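note to self — DONT lose this again. spent like an hour looking for the file last time. sequence + predicted structure for the chain T wanted, 404 res
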Amino acid sequence: MSDTHDPVDPAIRTTLPTVQTLSIQAASLIRSIASLSTVFWISIGGTILTVLFAGLNQLPANIASDSIYIGEYQVPKSILPIASLGFAAFVFWWTSNHLRMLDQVLTDSHMPFATMQEIFTLNPPVLNIFHPDNHRPFKMGTGSSILLINWSIFFGNSIAFTLSSAVQRGASISDFEPPQLALYGVFTIAVIAYGVRAIDGPLDNILERLHGSTFEFGWARVLLAILLIFGVAAVNNVDQFRIPSDQSDGLLGPAMANAIDGETLFINGIEVQLIGIDAMEPDQVCLDRAGVDYPCGRAATRHLEQLVADRPIVCLPLFAVSKARIVASCNLMPEGTVPPTDSDAFIMADRRYSMSARMVRDGHALTVGIGKKYLQQDEVDAQRERIGIWSGSFEPPWTYRARR
């Protein structure tokens, strides 16, 4: 006699529902569609982030810096192009993987064709890229068109990040060299080409199974994408291509100047921000060597005012922050001296005459952006000799601004 027996009472077993193979396949199909929606949402979220960073990059506090300040945190601009391209490559791979998975589910399914179509109708993915209207290349409101617009805005901002990492560090005195910019361009094109190639194949297969025709981008969509990419990049860098000086020789001055704060001069009705430095804020307080509070921000403003008092200043404008504010390299001009017109010559001029170098060397400002390349030794000397703010303790001005 066998000890094995059915633990379920036969009367109960007859009342249990039977799980059909078709219901398992339908559940798998619905799950594949839902996971594809998740990827779409992540790609849209990535674009929103690039728009946010592009907007922050245009703030006056960030436009002349090599970092974007978010509260007390700094995001180096140089990592944004790499991060955006890495994100795009990953999401393209992820999207392609989910489309192939969905294609495989459709291939292996034994469900009636009408049932599959009904599932796609009742449970479409975000943007419904499998709707028959997506075949129409001139219809811009379809899901595929929205995704194309989303990625065009994303890559437009990515190119803007690349340009701002190069140009906003100081225009013609950028840390970026042409080969580096060309390399970013090649990587951008490679990622876009990979995305089109990886997604187009499985998407074609799915649409052919559902509707009997493959997907075509169409020249209208491609033209829209190109215009968006370059339009977004241009809008985010429009200030960088303004002519910041009306003088025929490209210089501002020689002229008398007044100090607005420790890093800004007022010359001929224009606010001029000194390139490469971040001075103590006007209302900032530091500690001296005895641990006593003193107004280091006002001291920085007074020091710059003393440097330019009764002496002509000449500035080489680099780029415009706004119509009334530029970023420039400014030098004191000794009598009888011909001002240099080359930007590198301006920066590398005698340290006694460079306003940016003097403010750092005299311990009233810190180096930022391009200043880290040209003025680092001045900062090291001031710190070693414990001059100005280095004689006691202080909070970096960008941290102070974020905390207020």
